[in-house]
Amino acid sequence: MRFRLTPRETSFYDMFAASADNIVTGSKLLMELLGADSSGRAEIAERMRAAEHAGDDATHAIFHQLNSSFITPFDREDIYNLASSLDDIMDFMEEAVDLVVLYNVEELPKGVEQQVEVLARAAELTAEAMPNLRTMDNLTEYWIEVNRLENQADQIHRKLLAMLFNGKYEAIEVLKLKQIVDVLEEAADAFEHVANTVETIAVKES
Q1: Which Pfam families does its entry note (predicted)?
Q2: Domains in the chain, CATH or no CATH each
Q3: What secondary structure, in 3-state letters, does 52-89 show?
Q4: DSSP 99-133
Q5: Quick one: which of 18, 119, 128, 164 has the fewest CB in 10 Å?
């Protein structure tokens, strides 16, 4: 049996791609939530919870592989940061869906659908980018676009906050809705963290 001194560990790429694909699933469930009535939302929340658990499993698999690998395709710290940031995205999306159900929100404010559309687009871009970590090709446009989307998400978030505080809503409703739109904004920030980590990896590998 031939001993390979520097084995190539390629499973990380597949695991990152699987994690990103799961995020696309989560973003689609968020889109479903927008058009669902109160009875349908509980079922969507259950599916989102299952997707979040799948995301946790994917993250733990990456960490386990990281701890058991002698050679990694890029810096261990970057692998950890990338896996953690991908996991954060799913956590925030699942939290937003759960809050909508727990708070019995009858109608989400106008503008939330724009938040969700930004997240869905960022999810698609992230899923497309992960396989390119193998070659580090065609990644520049990815992180530039995700950063642009995060700036767009910031603007949408500020407009939503202004709407919530314009006196139209009861105080308790403001508290509920603000927490939901804040969590969706955190999901957008997490997408940017993923893109920034990918940029860091690409720069180191260039």
Answers
A1: PhoU_div
A2: 12-205 (1.20.58.220)
A3: HHHHHHHHHHHHHHHHHCCCCCCCHHHHHHHHHHHHHH
A4: HHHHTT-S-PPTTHHHHHHHHHHHHHHHHHHGGGG
A5: 128
